[in-house]
Design a protein that fits this description.
PyrdxlP-dep_Trfase_major; binds pyridoxal-5'-phosphate; 3-stranded antiparallel beta sheet; alpha/beta; cysteine desulfurase activity; 14 helices; Aspartate Aminotransferase, domain 1; 41% helix; iron-sulfur; iron; metal-binding; Aspartate Aminotransferase, domain 2; 2 domains
């Protein structure tokens, strides 16, 4: 079988898992003032420092959360709630954790949703035109999770430099595949998730630039400098730190391999004469993701047929009560519901081999021939 859905989640790196388990004896509550607590606190601080260094931040700028969904919620609601009549800007291709949060807030506040064009990118001029004197927050992702499109965040940061609005970047799908440096990116807030980078599920973080105010969404004790209450998940913080460190040291090799696998995949599809189109601009996409339009089949049928042959892939669209919804990202790009219903996201990993690519293509070819072949 071939798993080709690494943008959904990655397996937890066994080496990291073992290292974390080996340190389980340091079990104290970092808030306890006795020796056992202090040992845990020291370890937690060391891991926080590693996490911060990886993205060129300071340890106190890191807020540990239960994942990127929580981090995005905290960034958006924690900023909106501090203002009387805020205006906020986001895009129509964000992950659900950003999009849904803004959709909910738009009942109460003024929110602008920027449109993506067919290349999958946001137009920086649209952003310029949308900025208002009361714009307090702009949320734009670095890499789109469905198409892999790399948004022009460096140019966006330049536009926002002289504006009061905070810049919040969802970098979940970028980390490990390209450089994520909060200063170079001009981010005031940035989110990451453990399980997309070979760490565990249920851990993530929000970077919050020093001096930036944010209202806690989970209240209680004064953990995480009173920005997120709850006893810290010390072992998973260590796992996140180790996953980030490993992803950094192996980034060049891993992303080169992903790129080679993607290229081989597209070349094989062409060679086998399986009709497809790349959604978006393949030259402006992250190494590990490609989204393909197969005009000859609904995604739901293809996914099921591939699943039966042991090829595991996603449409990149939410499943609601057993029905595959058209991808909101593809629909936003092309304004074409049929295209959105006939598109599939393939997401690669350095863990895959060329034989896996050949297997996926051969199964796709068999399905295509069963439908149309002679
Ligand atoms: N943002 C993006 C771009 C994602 O791809 C995901 C993962 O699904 C998330 C946020 C949410 O991350 P988590 O699963 O850690 O809540």
């Amino acid at each position: 079988s071939v798993y080709v859905d690494y943008a959904s989640t990655t397996p937890f790196d066994k080496e990291i898992m073992e290292k974390v388990m080996a340190g389980a004896d340091v079990f104290g509550n970092p808030s306890s003032i006795h020796r056992v607590g202090k040992d845990a606190k020291a370890k937690l601080q060391a891991h926080r420092t590693r996490i911060a260094e990886s993205i060129n931040a300071k340890p106190k700028e890191i807020i540990i959360t239960s994942g990127a969904t929580e981090a995005n919620n905290l960034a958006i609601k924690g900023t909106a709630g501090r203002h009387e009549k805020p205006h906020m800007i986001t895009t129509d291709i964000e992950h659900a954790s950003v999009r849904t949060t803004y959709q909910d807030l738009s009942e109460q506040y003024d929110v602008t949703f920027l449109k993506a064009s067919e290349n999958g990118l946001i137009d920086v001029d649209d952003l310029k035109k949308s900025l208002q004197s009361n714009t307090v927050l702009v949320s734009i992702m670095l890499v789109n999770n469905e198409t892999g499109s790399i948004q022009p965040v460096y140019e966006i940061a330049k536009v926002l430099k002289d504006h009061q609005a905070l810049f919040h970047i969802d970098a979940v799908q970028a980390f490990g595949h390209m450089e994520v440096n909060v200063h170079a990116l001009g981010a005031d807030m940035l989110t990451l998730s453990g399980h997309k980078i070979y760490g565990p599920k249920g851990i993530g973080m929000l970077y919050l630039r020093e001096g930036t105010k944010l209202s806690a969404q989970i209240t209680g004790g004064s953990h995480e400098l009173s920005r997120r209450a709850g006893t810290e998940n010390t072992m998973w913080v260590e796992a996140l730190a180790l996953a980030m460190e490993k992803a950094d040291s192996k980034r060049a090799a891993r992303s080169l391999k992903e790129m080679q696998l993607k290229e081989r995949f597209l070349n094989e599809l062409t060679a086998e004469e399986i009709p497809f189109e790349v959604n978006g601009d393949v030259n402006r996409q992250a190494s590990h993701i490609v989204n393909l339009h197969f005009p000859w089949s609904e995604a739901e049928f293809l996914l099921t047929a591939l699943d039966m042959t042991g090829v595991y892939v996603s449409a990149g669209s939410a499943c609601n009560a057993g029905t595959v919804q058209p991808s909101h990202v593809i629909q936003a790009m092309y304004g074409d519901e049929e295209r959105a219903l006939k598109s599939i996201r393939f997401s690669f990993s350095h863990l895959m081999e060329e034989e896996d690519i050949l297997e996926i293509v051969s199964q796709l070819k068999a399905i295509y021939e069963r439908l149309y072949g002679n």
